[in-house]
TrEMBL record:
<feature type="domain" description="RCK N-terminal">
    <location>
        <begin position="3"/>
        <end position="120"/>
    </location>
</feature>
<dbReference type="Pfam" id="PF02080">
    <property type="entry name" value="TrkA_C"/>
</dbReference>
<dbReference type="InterPro" id="IPR003148">
    <property type="entry name" value="RCK_N"/>
</dbReference>
<feature type="domain" description="RCK C-terminal">
    <location>
        <begin position="136"/>
        <end position="219"/>
    </location>
</feature>
<dbReference type="InterPro" id="IPR006037">
    <property type="entry name" value="RCK_C"/>
</dbReference>
<protein>
    <submittedName>
        <fullName>Trk system potassium uptake protein TrkA</fullName>
    </submittedName>
</protein>
<dbReference type="InterPro" id="IPR036721">
    <property type="entry name" value="RCK_C_sf"/>
</dbReference>
<dbReference type="InterPro" id="IPR036291">
    <property type="entry name" value="NAD(P)-bd_dom_sf"/>
</dbReference>
<dbReference type="Pfam" id="PF02254">
    <property type="entry name" value="TrkA_N"/>
</dbReference>
<dbReference type="InterPro" id="IPR050721">
    <property type="entry name" value="Trk_Ktr_HKT_K-transport"/>
</dbReference>
Length: 219
């Protein structure tokens, strides 16, 4: 099987971090930026680093972008360039296009023109950090949809020594405990009589409003 090929367009903070991580994982990455300095920085990190304006369809074709399986468009402030680049990639038939959105309107347009995945790292990270600020026992927070999330919480005194039946999280809050982590062990199909101890990490899935009630009452 041939190796999966990636391209990252835009080597700002976000694109650069994706590019570095893909390269670190041994992936084949083509790094593209219109800024020569940025490209020079990535010459030794990415498999190939080239200077190009991604809003120029011919430039992208010349680079052989059609051979790339997954393109990440990480152009930040220039929303116009991000949209135009996505449109060109779509027309060139790229299999998988992930685009970073700057704001909700940008996200809507990207979805409309057929971006396969739209990410909103600043907004999502902001939400995750806000939840961990509310309680230091909330370790992580992942939005699944506009209304559903997964939250990772550290069990405190309120849960210590109680079984899932005692806590009755599903009936009281409408959320489900999907896993319990204790040191290096992870129990991915917790039973009603499994006991939770302070310091365990429990992973809960549910509607945002239910998770909110659960956090207020037990975390
Ligand atoms: P971040 O917020 O992730 O730091 P930036 O907006 O600072 O993002 O960086 C975006 C990068 O995208 C810059 O390095 C910029 O040179 C590059 N870029 C912007 N427009 C284009 C384009 N049309 N073609 C290629 N690269 C571009």
């Amino acid at each position: 099987m041939s190796k999966h090929l990636y391209a990252v367009i835009g080597l700002g903070r976000f694109g650069a971090s994706i590019c570095k991580e893909l390269a670190r994982e041994g992936m084949e990455v083509l790094a593209i930026d219109s800024d020569e300095e940025k490209v020079n920085e990535y010459k030794d990190i990415a498999s190939h680093a080239v200077i190009a304006d991604s809003t120029d369809e011919f430039a992208l074709k010349d680079l052989g972008i059609r051979n790339i399986d997954h393109v990440i468009v990480a152009i930040g402030d220039n929303i116009h360039a991000s949209i135009l680049t996505t449109l060109i990639l779509k027309e060139l038939g790229i299999d998988m296009i992930t685009v970073k959105a700057q704001n909700d309107y940008h996200e809507k347009v990207l979805n409309k023109i057929g971006a396969d995945e739209v990410v909103h790292p600043e907004r999502d990270m902001g939400k995750r950090i806000a939840h961990s600020i509310i309680s230091s026992n909330i370790l992580d927070y992942l939005e699944l949809s506009d209304e559903h999330s997964v939250v990772e919480v550290k069990a405190g005194e309120k849960m210590d020594g109680k079984t899932l039946i005692d806590l009755d999280i599903r009936a009281r809050f409408g959320c489900n405990v999907v896993a319990i982590k204790r040191d290096d062990d992870i129990n991915v199909s917790p039973m009603a009589d499994d006991v939770i101890y302070a310091g365990d990490v429990i992973i809960v899935i549910g509607a945002d409003q239910d998770i909110h009630r659960f956090e207020k009452s037990l975390v």
